[in-house]
Amino acid sequence: MADLAVVFHWAPAHMDGLGLEELMDWRERARVRVETDGK
């Protein structure tokens, strides 16, 4: 949840209604968004 808060600027209240699967999906989106290509 911290990753989502940092990347998407979401407060914990915004994530309260999400299920585990949705949280995992959004966490992956956050990872992809901030991932560097190694250059």
Automatic annotation (TrEMBL):
Name of the molecule in the record: GpE family phage tail protein
InterPro entries linked: P2_GpE (IPR009493)
Pfam families, per database record: Phage_P2_GpE
Top-rank lineage group of the source organism: Bacteria
